[in-house]
Write a structure and sequence with these properties.
four-stranded mixed sheet; 11% helix; 37% strand; mainly beta; Beta-clip-like; globular; five-stranded antiparallel sheet
């Protein structure tokens, strides 16, 4: 692992493990305090209509839909581990786009213990989640 200055990119102190029923997830390897920065992941961005065009040209959803952070008409595709955090309505972390560094920050919403899965809220309305409809 590596660490660089505050505006640099770095992976979390975490590991990827299987989460029952969800596939891979991100689990902390140390305690994170509330509001602490967990990860800053670089992104590349494009307008959200590009996802619509991609869907139309491929006859439906693509894998890109599941790993995109959509904010204000702009899609941010995260590199690093940011796309591996699972959704949980009672999330212990949250994400924020940082346009200055072209990155997504993942921060602890509350204290997170070592070994705990780090989860984020994908959307406020869970009926919008494709996997919620599949249950």
């Amino acid at each position: 692992m590596f660490r660089i200055d505050r505006k640099g990119f770095f992976p979390p102190d975490a590991e990827i493990r299987e989460t029952p029923g969800k596939g891979r997830g991100v689990f902390s390897t140390r305690k994170y305090a509330r509001n602490e920065l967990i990860e800053r992941a670089p992104t590349f961005t494009f307008e959200d209509n590009m996802l619509t065009l991609l869907m139309e040209s491929n006859g439906g959803r693509t894998i890109f839909h599941d790993y995109a952070f959509n904010k204000g008409g702009t899609v941010h595709m995260a590199l690093g581990w940011a796309s591996l955090y699972n959704h949980n309505g009672e999330n212990n972390a949250h994400w924020k786009v940082d346009n200055d560094t072209q990155s997504i920050e993942i921060r602890a919403r509350k204290d997170i213990e070592a070994g705990e899965e780090i989860t984020i809220l994908y959307v406020n309305d869970e009926s919008l989640l494709w996997f919620a409809k599949a249950d």
